[in-house]
């Protein structure tokens, strides 16, 4: 108590802000604080936060409170709650231990979206944090959030070195670092730039990385390998025998295994997890019960680690059914791009691209006894890929079954546009053990540039004019896409109205091909296996065959490219080997694109249409009728009045 000069007591009245500063802090961990003060504004679990729904988030959140831990790396599958855990840590810092912060996303559009849709609503819906938000009009925006006690949170994106290098921060949140570029402009990588901003807080800084992994060898996978001192995995107790175990994908099973239809597995919810101890099968409900009682287990013991990691696959999440996991795996068996999605989105491990190591002799082992020019009897359709050169054309014709097993029918070179027209529209191939013949169902012509032999105009213009003149719905122009596409084949309209920009009916269309994915698919098909009579294993779909006279020249061109990691971008991509010709490889890529499900109507659709046509009952012939009087045919057999015959 303070007294004046006369000894009278004087009272000091503190403001609300001063009272908050002087008030002792609650001794709570992040997970405890969240259950008391965090309100979820959006999503399937709106309301007061509960750890019971996603118990596995408690470990990473409470690692924030360990004074010796400065880096927390969460390698989680999607739909597991990792972003909400980061927001809990952010709100805890605002209320309990304020300091300048930065939230980083891959690009500006993404950071504005998450700020507007998740971060700001979360701050405003939680009373303990909402009362600290700045009162000025510009204190809360999509790029900056200011608080009354001096803390602020800046929004940044990894592709901008100017934003990343702006000022010092104590807290930094790296959201989806697996999608960051390798470099921010011409400067260092985004992680190094961001971490440099925390140097002013050497003992109290906290850096949180939370992401789904991407390709092996990228910045995030290197972070997991080089920075993490202790990695943790999640173990759950069996609801029956109580044995704690790490849930691994091989313990998830479903009827018919790899031969199952993924749609049936999802519809029937038939996937189960088998306990490694007692063999009891768990459904989704049993899994959820087990996860609520789980715990994080370090893979090795280190005293007071500075950087800790947490790994969680999708099958631990209450929001992901075991059957969805099984379906994703079954889809991956048919497409290497979807297997990459299974690895990164469900197993939560960096995808390791398979480097092509097949040599010519192994490739030629795919030869059959079927001679060139003969179509296997179970083939549904023929496709053709044509690679345009300066003076000639390379081509490949391939036959396809309904399961996308394929056979090489013919390959070679063509000299003129008349030869191309004759191949695509007039050539018929005999069907094995039959009197029938088949023509080409769909062909793809590369429209790549380059000056023609007379140096008067580009081959691209020449190809466009020829395609317009031969627009019969059989041959289409194609071009390699400049970047990765969601689908392997996408349509681009070339001929449009000058003013309205509407497509001209019957005008030229191009197909843009993701050649990287299609080359992956070709090498994936080389590994597909025949049926095994001894074990009863059926043959794989999408097997790849060559005709009986396929030579070494074809094999060398097919294997003229290999997958390598680019030294500058660190991306794995297909690159030509020593300037070898790759024309027939390109033709195979184009022929495969013609059969891809993204190019409609697909081969599978065509096969179903042919089956329906075969199974349809033949129309019955009309019954024979006796010749009738004209009036009888008109009036039929109906009764006539008596006066009719007296007329």
Automatic annotation (TrEMBL):
It comes from Desulfoluna spongiiphila. Pfam families: GpA_ATPase (PF05876), GpA_nuclease (PF20454). InterPro entries: GpA_ATPase, GpA_endonuclease, P-loop_NTPase. Residues 609-618 have a biased composition (Basic and acidic residues). GO terms for molecular function: ATP hydrolysis activity; endonuclease activity. Residues 308-596 form the Terminase large subunit GpA endonuclease domain. Residues 634-647 have a biased composition (Polar residues). The lineage of its organism: Bacteria, Pseudomonadati, Thermodesulfobacteriota, Desulfobacteria, Desulfobacterales. Residues 46-296 form the Phage terminase large subunit GpA ATPase domain. This is Phage terminase, large subunit GpA. It comes from the Bacteria. Residues 608-647 are annotated as: Disordered.
